[in-house]
Amino acid sequence: MHYQTLSEGWQIRPLDMFTQGIYPRDEGGWLPAAVPGHWQQIPELESHTGKVAYRCRFSLDAQAAPAHTRYWLRVNGAFYYSRPYLNGVDLGRHEGYFMPYERELGGLLQAENTLLIELDCPDEHDKRGKRMITGVFSHWDCLDPHANPGGLWLPVELHTSGPARLSHARCLTVACDERFAQIRFDLEIDAAAAAEATLRFTFTPRTFDGEEQVVTQRRALRAGRQELGGLLKLREPRLWWTHDLGRPDMYDVTVEVLLGDVVSDVRQFGFGVRRFELHNWVPSLNGVRFLAKGNNYPPGDMRIATMTRARCDQDLRLARECFMNMLRIHAHIDHPEIYEAADAAGMLIWQDFPLQWIYDQSILPEARRQVREMTRMLGSHPSVVIWCMHNEAVLIEDTTDESLLARLRTYATGFGFNWNRDVMDVQLKQVVEADDPTRPAIRSSGEPDVPYLRRGTDGHAYFGWYRTYGTLDDAEVMQRRFMGNLSFVTEFGAQSFPNLESSRRFVPEPLTDADIAHLCTRHGFQAEIMDNWIAWRQAGSLAEMVDLTQDYQIFINRYYIDRLRFYKYRPTGGIVPFIFLDPYPAILWSVVDYWRVPKRSYYAMRMAFSPQYAFCLFPP
Predict the structure, then answer these.
(1) What pTM did the predictor assign?
(2) Confidence (pLDDT) at 1
């Protein structure tokens, strides 16, 4: 019921190999570390990858605690493999960066304690056989390839509970109207002994004036860990809406486990009552059909631990002012604050599981476990409306490689049998649908729709950028003959330089060949691909280069948005370009740069997304 954040006094030690929690007790070889944080933020470790040990010493007055108090270590986020030790005792290995995990400390606590956490986040050089479920953090063209996300990126905490520990609680809206809402709850409880318990649910209006509603149920607990579920009724619920359809009204939910009259443990979280449906790729919210307009959201910062609620609120404000109502969390699970901010802002979230391109078949059991952790962890958020198992489950090692062989490999895995998509993603979709039947689940993003051969999923359309797709003339043919690919488009765009003031912060002037090579290697610039479309190398200055590239980006974005708005509901249900902002100083497909300065393309997109928008379609 109470917790202590272990935020002070952390140290870190780079390692070549782990030694089972036994490390020098003196200060030699240890560096001060910030938790939450990433080890590459420490100057001495800015190039380190692989293994480290974190150490924290803390005091505890266990004698002051009530009888039958249980203590728990909670690690909220660790990239990627971790193993904690308390006072030399191994607490067990954990895999996965985004989900919290807990270990009961039992009689291990002393007045003075030493917590060690071994952490391993290696670089994966074999891009065809990846084994870490980190999505864009391990393989992407929009992050510095030299960056490693390793670290304790969310707080480490010490929790207490009574004999029954409530380690997880989630609420889902099964049905709702103006009279009542049917709410499904899912709990995970660890009981020290078999007991009769009372579950008490309190729904308190957060964003409006209203009566608090309390529901109780009696349940028999067995000793050990168990999952409990059931249904509740909420009277006269206030519904959660997107900002463009209404008010995003929220409740604060308190779930208590009582043994007798004593509260053994409690969890609190935000919740919104809403019903989301997707019929033939046309979305509706609470029975109201609408056009999804949004963008792909990368990690808010390459160093995701540095994201704060204020930064997330700023990003949501920029999205709302651009008339967006949906963000696709692209091939990763983001900082917890972005989901809280989206709930409050009335912004829908399409949530990708952290799978990007191709993986080794050995990850399937772990992927099945982690995908359920995703739905359990994020399921109470009303903003999260779609689950997607995988982004582009095709063989892509380097998006700048447009050789014939590379394109043939992509085509073969895109149109032929593909274990990642046809076996793993099918199983992951089944796991998600069984755990959360209230949201649509998509097997993988970017599957093309081919009439009489197979139905696709959401469309990716890089005509006018990647030669793998073709020119805009090819896009015109696709629109006439393969209309299914226009149903819900979640990627399109072109790269551009940030505004001049922002570009000057990391782009040399004038540009030499060595500078261009560095921008391509470290800052995402796809110079040779841009050569196919505009004569940017002939620009007489950096300012002219900024204008040239942003002009082309505006042209490409307007081309797609105008046509997709023309086909609204016939069949288009969603328009989600790529990508909203830069997660680090870069030259990407973004309309907002790393410093949150909008490009001209942001304002052009704002006009194209505006509720009232007059336009004409011309051949490209």
Answers:
(1) 0.95
(2) 67
